[in-house]
Known about the structure:
The protein is of the alpha/beta class. It has helices at 14-24, 40-50, 59-64, 80-89, 104-117, 132-143, 167-186, 278-281, 283-298, 309-327, 338-342, and strands at 5-10, 30-36, 54-56, 70-73, 94-97, 122-125, 149-157, 190-196, 211-217, 222-228, 236-243, 247-249, 264-266, 269-271, 307-308, 333-334. The chain is globular.
Amino acid sequence: MAETLQVGIIGTGVMGQDHARNFASGIAGGQLVAVADVNAQAASDLAARTGAEHVFSSGEELIDSGIVDAVIIAAPDRFHAGLTIRAMERGLPVLCEKPLAPTAEEAAEVVRRERELGESLVTVGFMRRFDPGYLALKERLVSGIDGALLMTHSAHRNVDAYPDGASSDTITNSGIHEIDTLPWLAGNPITQVQWTSGKASSLITKRLDPQFYLMTDAEGVLHTVEVQVQAQYGYDVRCELVCETANVELPRVPTLVDQNPVLVSKNLAAASAYPADWRPRFAAAYRAELSAWVQAASAKRIPEGAATATDALRATIVANALVESMNNGGARVDVPAIEEVLG
Ligand code: ISE
């Protein structure tokens, strides 16, 4: 392996571009050397903008090329599992964007293959685990200073995320963040879920929006989650912990230090800017995640605290249970144990 980790990015959509931009602005110990996309022009353009030397018109070619030490998979969700397995089989550390797969069956295939190969090379990009706000929430919970955790309330609102998706995509592509983050915070797996929705926005016809999830974990902690893909006003992620002696939450007004150094109250109004999507809101988390992954991948490890393939399988199992609840009129669904799914 070269001294600097030679990285290839597969997929030149929003996240492929964001990771490439981060490399271009400097990530210690790592260098972007290759970009792949079925849209060869998009791959060439991104490579030209970010200084990557090699361009491929498929992820498989990049993985098989022998010129990269590690890969970032930022292709559409349905390709994640197949590409991850191919990279693992070549012994390449992977940072796969979330979800590991939209279905538990595909995600389980990755974990089975990982177990057969006997090496854990897969990190899944649940970047909120690197966000200073979520980390501070976790630190407080672990300290026990506020007593036991009783409930959590989350909201996840996008300006206009993937308007072509179906209702189930809201769960597997957007809500999957809360599905990963909440048990990570609480330290307990989700054991039962219930999906519901009420009056739907007229602004989006292809899926029910907003959606609401009630999830119970192994300790009986209730987690309520609202997910909206067409909220219009701004990208807004909220999380509140209800503990025995305190309530602790992420700052209500999103902390974008460059845009919101202060909250201005003037002319009978208070004003602060909202980000248009997740990239500025989680910029620090994405950089921290990438830096930690580059360091860990160089030693063929997974960064401390990051989501493993097994964590990501667990998230997809819960997401699929919510889809089942949605398809069954909002019935309560027990979440199967991971070993049951792995068979
Ligand atoms: C998107 O794919 C992301 O991962 C964002 O973090 C999330 O907020 C958004 O809802 C998803 O569509």
